[in-house]
Amino acid sequence: MPSFDAVSKTDLAEVDNALAGITREVAQRFDFKGSKCSVERKDQMITVLADDDSKLKTMHELLSVHFTRRKVDPKALEYKTVEKASGNTVRQEVRIKDGIETVLAKRLVKEIKDAKLKVQVAIQGDELRVTGKKRDDLQDAIALLRKLEVDQPLQFINFRD
To answer: Pairing state of beta strands 45-50 and 89-96?
Structure first.
């Protein structure tokens, strides 16, 4: 029976490459001379340290640009609240989303069922398995999922006939 998996995975090697690019750019840019701005990653969390809110906003733009350049979707980033750090600096935690959370998975299943496509959807951990009798039905399901406004990137893997 034809099927495919809808997943949300982030390539951490490409994330590291993007963060290395940001570090190089911060070291070279004139507007960052003498500042304490930095980015570092531990597991699924990126810590952004900046001198003030305007530099933090610039760091967000750099994150977006460098992630796009490395073909990592910036939607995979979830920004936490900004907190004060030592020496009049600000710190922000950014979580890298990996896997489809159950709330989003249930919403995607509901959208597919409401579209009345002839497919079955099963939630398997942090991914969705979509099965159907015809390849065209699966392609319609992929088109529907791509069209939806989802706050994290989706990939479609293991397409089988």
So the answer is: antiparallel
Residue 85's DSSP bridge partners are: 89
d(CA 19, CA 32): 16
Contact between 3 and 133 under an 8 Å Cβ cutoff? The reply is: no
The residues, ordered by sequence, that sit 6+ positions from 42 with a Cβ below 8 Å of its Cβ are none
3-state DSSP percent of the chain in helix, strand and coil, to 5: 40, 30, 25
Please name which of 37, 89, 29, 94 lies closest in space to residue 67, comparing C-alpha atoms: 94
The mean pLDDT value of the chain amounts to 92
Strand partners, 4: 130
Report residue 47 as tokens: 């810590």
Structure confidence at residue 96 (pLDDT): 93
